[in-house]
Amino acid sequence: MGLALVLLGGASCGRAPSPMPAGDASRVICGTPAVAEIVFALGCGDQVVGVSAFTDWPPEAAAKPLIGGALSPNRERILKLEPTLILSQGKAETLGSWARAQQIPFVAVPLDTLDELQAAIGTFASALGVEERGETLWKELEEGCAACSAGESVPVFIAIGHAPGDLSALMTSGPGTFLDELVARAGGQNLFADVKMDWPSISTESLIRRAPSILLDFQPFPMEADQVAALVADWEKLGFRADQVRLLDEAVFLRPGPRAVQSVPLLAEAIRGSEKGDTPE
Question: Which residues have CB under 8 Å from 232's CB, separation 6+?
Fold first, then answer.
């Protein structure tokens, strides 16, 4: 799976939610992995009849019938599942147009920032008829973040798209994106928060000039020992020390859902590990 499918949940970005349908939500299809996580967190997993490829959390969601990739779902499979509601992420214009032509109620929401995550939880909760549960879920997530004492900000580089042995395709998180906000809540100062793009590509030269204290290397899959060694060695070639590198190799950090907010204490621990002299595992 490409990084974009993990990072953005497999759908193109968008800023305005689609109109809220009224009616039956007894047979729901979740168009992206992040959407599935939200629906299950709302306690509505028993209403889900289909999910997109690479949906892996919670385990109950992973066991649901697949509709294909988030960017190119299989329409025949969707029809066989007889959904009464399709929930998705981003613009999802192709899926939305098709669903409306089939007279299947459809809702898509943007999921690029924490504010949009909060709004998505509320929108889906309303569509599923569990508004109170939506309010409670966000309150629980906010309380978990508030319990994480950040202290003074640490200058960090948010590395995305780093393949072992290759630093030519580095991406980072721009200002206001959910990953930028999570890192800030965890006590990190994003050194590329001044760029004008959500997910810009950056050069190794500009990275060296900005001299981060910590490198947060986000990976979409768990790394084997040899891959970890190669990733760290790449940073050392640029003059950084191994104890400045934090490898975060779980998709939860890159998927804009409830677990991403719950990961703030883990991010804080990774960032503050330097104060205790920790080295990456």
Answer: 242, 245, 247, 280
For residues 130 and 42, give the distance between their C-alpha atoms in angstroms, rounded to a whole number. 8
- CATH superfamily name and code, 3-145: Nitrogenase molybdenum iron protein domain (3.40.50.1980)
Rounded Cα distance between 14 and 37, Å, is 19
Least Cα distance to 122 among 178, 215, 41, 48 occurs for 41
Q: What are the backbone dihedrals phi and psi of residue 198, each rounded to the nearest 5 degrees, phi first? A: -70, -45
Architecture of domain 150-272: 3-Layer(aba) Sandwich (3.40)
* Sequence spans of domains, the chain: 3-145, 150-272
Q: Which amino acid is at 249?
A: D
H-type helices in the chain, by residue range?
3-7, 33-41, 59-62, 75-80, 93-101, 114-128, 131-146, 178-185, 204-210, 225-237, 258-262, 264-272
Q: What does the pLDDT look like over 217-232, one tens digit per residue?
A: 999 888 999 999 999 9
Residues ≥6 apart with Cβ < 8 Å to 168: none
End-to-end CA distance of the chain: 25
DSSP 106-126: EEEE--SSHHHHHHHHHHHHH
Give tens-digit pLDDT for 122-148: 999 999 999 999 999 998 888 766 656
Do the domains 150-272 and 3-145 match in fold?
yes
Q: What is the pLDDT of residue 278?
A: 47
Cβ-based neighbours of 112, under 8 Å, separated by 6 or more:
8, 13, 176, 177, 178, 198, 256
